[in-house]
Design brief:
Order of helices and strands: EEEEEEHEHHEEEHHHHEEHEE
Distance between the termini: 29 Å
Strand content: 15-25%
Mean pLDDT: 96
Low-confidence stretches: none
Bound molecules: (3R)-3-hydroxy-3-methyl-5-(phosphonooxy)pentanoic acid
Radius of gyration: 20 Å
Length: 361
Amino acid sequence: MTEKDFLPKPYPAAVAQGEVTWQSPSNIALVKYWGKLDHQIPANPSISFTLDSCRTTTTLKYSKKEKHSDNFEFELYFEGEKKDSFRPKIQKFLERVEPYLPFLKDYKFIIDTSNSFPHSSGIASSASGMSALALCLMSIEKQLDPEMDDKYFTRKSSFLARLGSGSACRSIEGELVVWGFQRNIYGSSDLYGVQFRDEVHENFRNYRDTILLVDKGEKQVSSTVGHELMNGHPFAERRFQQAHENLDRLKKIFRSGDLSEFIKVVESEALTLHAMMMTSQPYFLLMKPNTLEIINRIFKFREESGLHLCFTLDAGANVHLLYPEKEEKETSEFIEASLKQYCQNGQFIHDGVGSGASKLA
Ligand code: PMV
């Protein structure tokens, strides 16, 4: 599909007002997206586990304007309170998606959103937030075009979510989602995320992700700035190529169930992401001393226990711990006894792989 396929034909139906609620999860990348071209086209393909309990719930109320006006009319509430600081981000999102949703200026919107994870925990809420909003808008379009099929609905939701925040396009479906064209992954596209449909070994079923909240502060580097650091980065081309190679390796690993190889790819991807930030101009060091303590403890634990706990990182200090379901008991004991102490206020979140967004009403 191309961008043009997401431009709607004149709508056959009309709708005056209504309300819709979607719940959409966060996701954690195994091969990282870092670097982009215009219109949120990724510089390399990425793959992520969709999460289960870290979710955003968004209710969108809409009513037709009495008189057409040439601006977007919306009110924003976050966890029950008016949140004007989010307005610029939503305004920009609406501007970007308007060509694909030409009804936006015909309605007034009230957007009410809340997260299942603690406020300012450092957990990226843009993926769950933007995907939930994209799905709500698609539910309106579905009413205007009742014949729309489910596949188009899902693809276009992911396409729109991408225009809000790149990684958000990987939050619509579960359990593994690829975004970015990769030669040997069927259906993969730079425009939207697709479910990874190759064989996946049972070792990866219900894989666990415990998120250690190491630093709950404001992000030091916004992802917009972060992606820009890859423009003219001395290692950019090699890095983009490496992401393709790592996705190829993971494809084989998902089939074979080789957890030791899985760890090598996933941890190297996380450290490469941070290495890119450390070697850009300007440079950033986003790991905290406790991030390193945790990583070293994981290495030691793995050596002593023979278990398969590994880590990955986003563009921040928090650590995602990935491990197989059958090692859950020993691993959670280890987290309680040896890692919790490195978390801010002892906070962590047990999550796992999930199946994607769901419509609540
Ligand atoms: O979706 P963005 O623009 O916030 O970028 C997310 C980038 C990383 O989280 C660091 C990696 C990824 O692939 O999710």
